User: Which sequence fits this backbone?
């Protein structure tokens, strides 16, 4: 819907949605992703001892979204790796961040004001990927709502959704938690975003794709820049979830502090899963009785 | 082959094979699958703390067969999720079983006589899936016997064959066992069934597909209903296996009690792997010597 | 390039590259692969207790390269299993090695001179697979260098690259190491080989495919036969790596003794990861500071 007074905004949104992400925004995406890989315990040692494995981890961080989307849709997970310039660019970022003499490149990109710019640019790419994922799935399955939402979601979340296996590649194994049990902010935001984009694609949300990309990107930029700058733990979704979840699911969902960092496996290693909510005595007895019955079957 | 006195049976089998599984039989399949998910330790807590992860587990239990078959054949694992009505139905079953006020729905469906009906209906769906899997693989690989058998098998076994990873999604990790090392009854029955359906598809078994579906379904219904009702541990395959395995493999296969429940990962957590059979002194020495040699290589 | 005095060599290479690998060379490949499976701790017990799981492991060892290549390219991982004769041959090899009366077959094939012949024949198949993988990926992605290299690599390395999951199938789980962190000789050689074949395919390496196959196969045969015969640990790549890696990556790569055996998961269980190289005090402080910052985000 374009009202006459919204025309400039509509044009701005259209221009924004048409911005090419390669190479500038993609570079920012790669920088922030590999930065977070470097923060992982043992990542620097791994880059010295097993540089190839380190490079592979970096590629998972940079292109995990394409790999997962390819897997879900039965297409080649490696399809995006046929874009040689992207892979070479990501490789260069990885090399500079891990091996630049005197750590010069790393110091430059992790200088907070610079980093905040890159974080903002990464969110531009994230939202574009969600939109592209939903669009691509819609092309394959015109009425496959769940397929569209799943594709957009993995495009937005990227490597976070395979964090257990990315950690396994580094020789780390933490099965007690995963991104689905304890969602970080980007993963949760990607989930909500993919629902919005799917509703828009199927014409249930009366907004143009360009406008939705623009507004959702602005939302993501504001949240992520604020959270990165202030080291804040607060999730912007918490108020809404604390309203809805007790009604729907009889309890508060796990939207507790400690899960509002970018989608990196290690971020979960410092959070402690909250204590289980008290079950009614009936549920406990029932569960035990049924488990015994099931074992016997 | 239809003899004049088998015509009514042939017509019955044909009508039976043509019964639409959606929505009634599929609903029963979903109910039994999600019931068994609820029995898993920690599943109820997970539904309260991480409802999305709980929903995803339920979807794996309901549609795991389609996901695995898609993975094996290079097709989209999510292809079946484009059937929105199926997914919505499975979601409704999950919600009612986990969140119905006063657990009303759960109490109704787990009332034994009602549950036995659902168990029987689930077997109808299982056998149909095996037949459909073999048929689909035959369409892609006319002479790919092993592909046909593998596809039918994963369609019949479903989530059981990925139990380690379904457990990982719930934050549980038990690598010491899996459905292939210690097969539950439904998985083993699906394996035998897929062999029969492959032989039928390639015209080595002189029986029509409808008749085979009918008879194999009756066999599965009788076994599963009996085992569910009596909490029996006995496998109907044990007599045959105890005859064949010592001849072929020099030892009794692991068909011991405790593995005749439905294909759920947790069912294996209470079974203790049997003590290893005694190896000949020669084999032990040889193994050690060869391992040392291999390490050196 | 064919100089008049190299014509005989060119013809020899062409004839060599045209040699059919099925059934003789494939049989040797299966024999060596299943031999190494038998060396794994617990493999013989598993074959007695869970023969089906043992057979599946053997199929992973024999056809793992095709499964991985299919997964990466979005094709059916099971596609090669439609070649019934291959699967039957591999099954026969597995059965004879594990269940032949008095272990006769095993004793014959593991007699060192005989085994060396099979090891040499296996390398013929390995190099052919690398070439075929690169060729096939080139056909799908004319300029996808990284896709070509990845496909050739997984075709050459085979089951080693999924060693963690092949071990999981046997009920073993060793997440602290994997083939990418600590590459065995065949995996590393396959990696270098796939780079050469990709350069050849894209006309950057001025050599015919037949010549490259011939020379690389000779190199692999000499190395593997020498290493198998002498139980040597020395990697032929170590001199070159010790020259290049400190320059590129600031440290010696993990080319230490103990990693020059064939691609079998168990071979890694006896290697101890080398102690981490000393980090500069600055890097240690920085890492800690950044991890704290990231946790807060």
Assistant:
């Amino acid at each position: 819907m374009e009202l006459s007074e919204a025309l400039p905004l509509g044009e701005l949104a259209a221009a924004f949605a048409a911005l090419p992400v390669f190479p500038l925004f993609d570079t920012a995406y790669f920088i922030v992703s590999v930065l977070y890989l470097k923060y992982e315990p043992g990542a620097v040692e791994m880059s010295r001892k097993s540089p190839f494995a380190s490079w592979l981890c970096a590629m998972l961080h940079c292109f995990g979204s394409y790999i997962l989307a390819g897997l879900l849709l039965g297409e080649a997970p490696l399809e995006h790796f046929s874009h040689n310039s992207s892979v070479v660019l990501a490789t260069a970022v990885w090399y500079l961040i891990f091996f630049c003499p005197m750590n010069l490149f790393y110091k430059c990109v992790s200088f907070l004001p610079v980093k905040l710019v890159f974080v903002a640019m990464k969110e531009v790419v994230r939202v574009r990927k969600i939109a592209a994922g939903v669009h691509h799935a819609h092309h394959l399955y015109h009425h496959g709502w769940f397929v569209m939402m799943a594709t957009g979601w993995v495009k937005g979340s990227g490597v976070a959704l395979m964090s257990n296996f990315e950690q396994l590649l580094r020789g780390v194994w933490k099965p007690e938690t995963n991104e689905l049990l304890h969602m970080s902010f980007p993963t949760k935001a990607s989930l909500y975003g993919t629902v919005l984009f799917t509703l828009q694609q199927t014409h249930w949300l009366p907004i143009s794709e360009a406008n939705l990309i623009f507004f959702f990107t602005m939302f993501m930029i504001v949240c992520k820049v604020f959270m990165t700058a202030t080291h804040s733990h607060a999730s912007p979704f918490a108020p809404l979830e604390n309203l809805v979840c007790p009604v729907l699911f009889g309890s508060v969902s796990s939207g507790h502090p400690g899960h509002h960092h970018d989608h990196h496996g290690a971020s979960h290693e410092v959070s402690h899963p909250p204590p289980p909510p008290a079950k009614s005595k009936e549920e406990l007895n029932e569960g035990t009785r049924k488990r015994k019955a099931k074992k016997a079957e």
Residues 255-287 of chain B have pLDDT under 50 and may be disordered. Chain B has one domain: 18-236. Chain B touches chain A through 49 residues (CB under 8 Å). Chain B has 13 helices and no strands.
